[in-house]
Amino acid sequence: MEILRTENLKKYYGEGDTCVKALDGVDFGVEKGEFVSIVGTSGSGKSTLLNMLGGLDRPTSGTVMVDGKSIFSLKEEALTIFRRRKIGFIFQSYNLVPILNVYENIVLPIELDGNKVDKKFVKSVMETLGLTEKIHALPSQLSGGQQQRVAIARALASKPAIVLADEPTGNLDSATSQDVLGLLKVTGERFGQTMVMITHNEEIAQMADRIVRMEDGRLGRPVKGGVSHA
Predict the structure, then answer these.
(1) What is the pLDDT of residues 47-105, one digit of tens each?
(2) Buried b vs exposed e over 183-217: b needs ≥16 C-beta within 10 Å?
(3) Hey, what domains does the chain have and what are their CATH numbers?
(4) What digits encode the pLDDT tens for the residues 186-204?
(5) pTM for this one?
(6) Cβ–Cβ under 8 Å, residues 170 and 95
(7) Alpha carbons 192 and 210: distance in angstroms, whole number
Protein backbone atom coordinates (compact mmCIF):
# COMPACT_ATOMS: atom_id res chain seq x y z
CA MET A 1 0.00 0.00 0.00
CA GLU A 2 1.43 3.39 -1.03
CA ILE A 3 1.48 5.87 1.85
CA LEU A 4 3.27 8.73 0.04
CA ARG A 5 3.14 9.93 -3.56
CA THR A 6 4.34 13.02 -5.42
CA GLU A 7 3.29 13.82 -8.98
CA ASN A 8 5.22 16.24 -11.22
CA LEU A 9 6.37 18.18 -8.17
CA LYS A 10 8.10 21.46 -9.04
CA LYS A 11 9.63 24.29 -7.02
CA TYR A 12 11.04 27.20 -9.01
CA TYR A 13 12.69 30.34 -7.68
CA GLY A 14 12.94 33.43 -9.90
CA GLU A 15 12.10 33.74 -13.59
CA GLY A 16 13.76 33.64 -17.00
CA ASP A 17 17.54 33.36 -17.03
CA THR A 18 17.69 33.62 -13.24
CA CYS A 19 15.18 30.81 -12.62
CA VAL A 20 16.45 28.13 -10.24
CA LYS A 21 14.68 24.78 -10.54
CA ALA A 22 15.06 23.36 -7.02
CA LEU A 23 12.59 20.61 -7.94
CA ASP A 24 11.94 19.90 -11.60
CA GLY A 25 9.12 17.42 -11.98
CA VAL A 26 9.58 14.86 -9.20
CA ASP A 27 7.48 11.68 -9.28
CA PHE A 28 8.08 9.64 -6.16
CA GLY A 29 6.25 6.96 -4.19
CA VAL A 30 6.82 5.19 -0.88
CA GLU A 31 5.11 2.03 0.35
CA LYS A 32 3.75 1.72 3.87
CA GLY A 33 6.48 0.44 6.22
CA GLU A 34 9.31 1.19 3.77
CA PHE A 35 12.58 2.92 4.72
CA VAL A 36 13.87 5.05 1.83
CA SER A 37 17.08 7.08 1.62
CA ILE A 38 17.40 10.01 -0.76
CA VAL A 39 21.05 10.71 -1.51
CA GLY A 40 22.39 13.88 -3.09
CA THR A 41 25.03 16.56 -2.83
CA SER A 42 24.37 19.99 -1.37
CA GLY A 43 22.10 21.91 -3.74
CA SER A 44 20.66 18.79 -5.39
CA GLY A 45 17.16 19.60 -4.12
CA LYS A 46 16.81 16.89 -1.50
CA SER A 47 16.07 19.26 1.39
CA THR A 48 13.54 21.12 -0.73
CA LEU A 49 11.87 17.81 -1.52
CA LEU A 50 11.71 16.83 2.14
CA ASN A 51 10.14 20.19 3.01
CA MET A 52 7.49 19.56 0.34
CA LEU A 53 6.81 16.02 1.57
CA GLY A 54 6.29 17.40 5.06
CA GLY A 55 4.13 20.33 3.99
CA LEU A 56 6.66 22.83 5.34
CA ASP A 57 6.84 24.64 2.00
CA ARG A 58 4.41 24.87 -0.90
CA PRO A 59 5.40 23.82 -4.43
CA THR A 60 5.22 25.91 -7.58
CA SER A 61 3.10 23.11 -9.01
CA GLY A 62 2.43 19.42 -8.54
CA THR A 63 0.88 17.20 -5.91
CA VAL A 64 1.91 15.56 -2.64
CA MET A 65 -0.34 12.81 -1.30
CA VAL A 66 0.18 11.61 2.29
CA ASP A 67 -2.01 8.79 3.58
CA GLY A 68 -4.50 9.42 0.78
CA LYS A 69 -4.72 13.19 1.34
CA SER A 70 -3.57 15.87 -1.10
CA ILE A 71 -1.83 18.02 1.51
CA PHE A 72 -1.61 21.24 -0.51
CA SER A 73 -5.35 21.26 -1.07
CA LEU A 74 -5.60 22.08 2.65
CA LYS A 75 -5.70 25.62 4.00
CA GLU A 76 -2.80 26.65 6.24
CA GLU A 77 -4.43 25.88 9.60
CA ALA A 78 -5.74 22.51 8.42
CA LEU A 79 -2.32 21.70 6.94
CA THR A 80 -0.64 22.50 10.27
CA ILE A 81 -2.98 20.11 12.09
CA PHE A 82 -2.54 17.39 9.45
CA ARG A 83 1.25 17.77 9.61
CA ARG A 84 1.27 17.50 13.41
CA ARG A 85 -0.88 14.36 13.36
CA LYS A 86 0.39 12.53 10.30
CA ILE A 87 4.04 13.48 9.83
CA GLY A 88 6.96 12.99 12.22
CA PHE A 89 10.10 15.07 11.72
CA ILE A 90 13.69 14.31 12.74
CA PHE A 91 16.20 17.12 12.16
CA GLN A 92 19.97 17.13 12.61
CA SER A 93 19.62 20.02 15.10
CA TYR A 94 17.40 17.90 17.42
CA ASN A 95 15.06 20.87 18.20
CA LEU A 96 14.48 19.80 21.81
CA VAL A 97 12.96 22.24 24.32
CA PRO A 98 15.77 22.91 26.85
CA ILE A 99 13.51 23.36 29.90
CA LEU A 100 11.61 20.09 29.32
CA ASN A 101 12.90 16.66 30.32
CA VAL A 102 13.18 13.68 27.98
CA TYR A 103 9.64 12.41 28.50
CA GLU A 104 8.11 15.89 28.25
CA ASN A 105 9.94 16.55 24.98
CA ILE A 106 8.74 13.25 23.52
CA VAL A 107 5.05 13.78 24.29
CA LEU A 108 4.95 17.55 23.66
CA PRO A 109 3.54 17.38 20.07
CA ILE A 110 0.78 15.02 21.23
CA GLU A 111 -0.19 17.29 24.11
CA LEU A 112 -0.10 20.38 21.87
CA ASP A 113 -2.63 18.61 19.66
CA GLY A 114 -4.86 17.96 22.68
CA ASN A 115 -4.63 14.20 22.32
CA LYS A 116 -4.18 11.54 24.98
CA VAL A 117 -0.68 10.12 25.26
CA ASP A 118 -0.42 6.37 24.71
CA LYS A 119 1.92 5.85 27.66
CA LYS A 120 2.43 2.16 26.96
CA PHE A 121 3.51 2.87 23.39
CA VAL A 122 5.79 5.75 24.43
CA LYS A 123 7.38 3.50 27.07
CA SER A 124 8.02 0.83 24.44
CA VAL A 125 9.63 3.36 22.09
CA MET A 126 11.83 4.69 24.89
CA GLU A 127 12.90 1.18 25.86
CA THR A 128 13.81 0.37 22.26
CA LEU A 129 15.89 3.54 22.00
CA GLY A 130 17.58 3.03 25.39
CA LEU A 131 16.11 6.15 26.96
CA THR A 132 14.32 4.70 29.99
CA GLU A 133 17.03 5.68 32.47
CA LYS A 134 17.14 9.22 31.04
CA ILE A 135 13.41 9.92 31.34
CA HIS A 136 13.86 12.85 33.76
CA ALA A 137 17.05 14.27 32.22
CA LEU A 138 17.14 17.67 30.52
CA PRO A 139 18.61 17.98 26.98
CA SER A 140 21.71 19.71 28.41
CA GLN A 141 22.45 16.55 30.41
CA LEU A 142 22.45 14.33 27.31
CA SER A 143 25.08 13.55 24.68
CA GLY A 144 24.41 14.38 21.03
CA GLY A 145 23.51 10.77 20.29
CA GLN A 146 21.08 10.66 23.21
CA GLN A 147 19.44 13.91 22.11
CA GLN A 148 18.94 12.50 18.63
CA ARG A 149 17.35 9.38 20.14
CA VAL A 150 14.90 11.66 21.97
CA ALA A 151 14.13 13.38 18.65
CA ILE A 152 13.45 9.97 17.07
CA ALA A 153 11.19 8.97 19.96
CA ARG A 154 9.30 12.25 19.65
CA ALA A 155 8.77 11.65 15.93
CA LEU A 156 7.42 8.15 16.56
CA ALA A 157 5.31 8.86 19.66
CA SER A 158 2.30 10.29 17.82
CA LYS A 159 2.22 7.25 15.47
CA PRO A 160 2.47 9.36 12.30
CA ALA A 161 1.76 8.03 8.82
CA ILE A 162 5.31 8.86 7.79
CA VAL A 163 8.57 9.95 9.43
CA LEU A 164 10.85 12.38 7.58
CA ALA A 165 14.51 12.58 8.64
CA ASP A 166 16.70 15.48 7.46
CA GLU A 167 20.40 14.54 7.77
CA PRO A 168 19.60 12.97 11.18
CA THR A 169 23.24 12.14 11.91
CA GLY A 170 24.75 15.38 10.58
CA ASN A 171 25.95 16.49 14.03
CA LEU A 172 27.15 13.09 15.23
CA ASP A 173 30.47 11.29 14.96
CA SER A 174 30.77 8.20 12.78
CA ALA A 175 30.30 5.58 15.51
CA THR A 176 27.32 7.39 17.06
CA SER A 177 25.81 7.89 13.59
CA GLN A 178 25.84 4.15 12.95
CA ASP A 179 24.31 3.52 16.37
CA VAL A 180 21.51 6.05 15.91
CA LEU A 181 20.72 4.93 12.35
CA GLY A 182 20.63 1.32 13.49
CA LEU A 183 18.11 2.27 16.16
CA LEU A 184 16.09 4.29 13.63
CA LYS A 185 15.87 1.23 11.40
CA VAL A 186 14.98 -1.07 14.33
CA THR A 187 12.24 1.24 15.60
CA GLY A 188 10.86 1.62 12.09
CA GLU A 189 10.61 -2.13 11.67
CA ARG A 190 9.32 -2.78 15.18
CA PHE A 191 6.58 -0.15 15.07
CA GLY A 192 5.74 -0.49 11.37
CA GLN A 193 6.83 3.04 10.55
CA THR A 194 7.37 4.47 7.08
CA MET A 195 10.55 6.53 6.86
CA VAL A 196 12.14 8.82 4.30
CA MET A 197 15.65 10.06 5.08
CA ILE A 198 17.82 12.50 3.17
CA THR A 199 21.58 12.32 3.50
CA HIS A 200 24.78 13.07 1.63
CA ASN A 201 26.45 10.09 3.31
CA GLU A 202 26.13 7.03 1.10
CA GLU A 203 27.39 4.66 3.80
CA ILE A 204 24.53 5.72 6.06
CA ALA A 205 22.08 5.56 3.16
CA GLN A 206 22.90 1.88 2.68
CA MET A 207 20.95 1.06 5.86
CA ALA A 208 17.67 1.84 4.08
CA ASP A 209 15.49 -0.62 2.17
CA ARG A 210 15.76 1.47 -0.97
CA ILE A 211 18.04 4.25 -2.13
CA VAL A 212 17.47 6.91 -4.76
CA ARG A 213 19.80 9.64 -5.94
CA MET A 214 18.82 13.25 -6.47
CA GLU A 215 20.58 15.55 -8.92
CA ASP A 216 19.65 19.01 -10.18
CA GLY A 217 16.12 18.86 -8.80
CA ARG A 218 15.32 15.48 -10.31
CA LEU A 219 15.02 12.08 -8.70
CA GLY A 220 16.48 9.00 -10.33
CA ARG A 221 14.51 5.80 -10.78
CA PRO A 222 14.39 3.95 -7.41
CA VAL A 223 16.45 0.79 -7.26
CA LYS A 224 16.43 -1.78 -4.46
CA GLY A 225 19.80 -2.70 -3.06
CA GLY A 226 21.69 0.11 -4.73
CA VAL A 227 21.79 3.78 -5.55
CA SER A 228 19.83 4.92 -8.57
CA HIS A 229 21.23 7.39 -11.07
CA ALA A 230 19.38 10.40 -12.44
Answers:
(1) 999 999 999 999 999 999 999 999 999 999 999 989 988 999 998 888 899 999 999 99
(2) bbbebbeeeebbbbbbbeeeebbebbbbbbbbbeb
(3) 2-217 (3.40.50.300)
(4) 888 888 899 999 988 888 8
(5) 0.87
(6) no
(7) 16
